[in-house]
Amino acid sequence: MSPTYNILFLCTGNSARSILAEALATTLSHGRFIGFSAGSKPTGVVNPIALKLIEQMGYPLELVRSKSWDELGREGAPHMDFIITLCDSAAGEECPYWLGHPATAHWGLPDPAAVQGSEEDRLAAFKAVEMGLRNRIELLLDLPVDKLDHLELKTHLHHIHEGFKFN
Questions:
Q1: Where is the Phosphotyrosine protein phosphatase I domain (predicted)?
Q2: Residue 15 designated active-site
Q3: Whether 87 is catalytic
């Protein structure tokens, strides 16, 4: 039986990218990874387009909520094996201390919630970010995580993001 890994995706608002990543990591890995998400300044509301995409993935909507990263940095919170920041502002902020020295990386992606325009334009932005996350998470799932040391994991996480050019 292979181990289960906890992966935390961080954004500032925790309303779109990090929520999508949480759902993707959990559903694509079939239980090998448990996705979590949080924000440094959470909006408290999940974007309705993100909710629609998450529902299509089959991820339980009752698990989805916008929350502070402080909640996952407290004593008694799940131990994180990986922490991925998804927006440049969260990557530059002073993060809480995470026990166990999780492997970290920055996978900067544009905020689809910031896109203005028609419903089709906004949906297209969300789907593009979803695909960018999906591609990266699928590459992560292909890694022999249990056979790599901390530095190798960090290097692979960095290379996963660098392998994609996001327009």
A1: 5-143
A2: no
A3: yes
Domains detected in the chain = 5-162 (3.40.50.2300)
pTM of the model: 0.91
Q: In what order do the strands lie in the sheet with 33-39?
A: 33-39, 5-11, 82-85, 103-106
Greatest C-alpha distance within the chain:
48
What would the pLDDT profile of 11-33 be if each residue is shown by its tens digit? 989 999 999 999 999 999 998 99
Bridge partners of 8, per DSSP, are: 36, 83
CA distances from 36 to 27, 50, 69, 78, 121 (A): 12, 15, 10, 9, 27
Exactly one of 77, 95, 141, 143 is catalytic; name it. Answer: 95
**Active-site pick, 46, 80, 87, 105:** 87
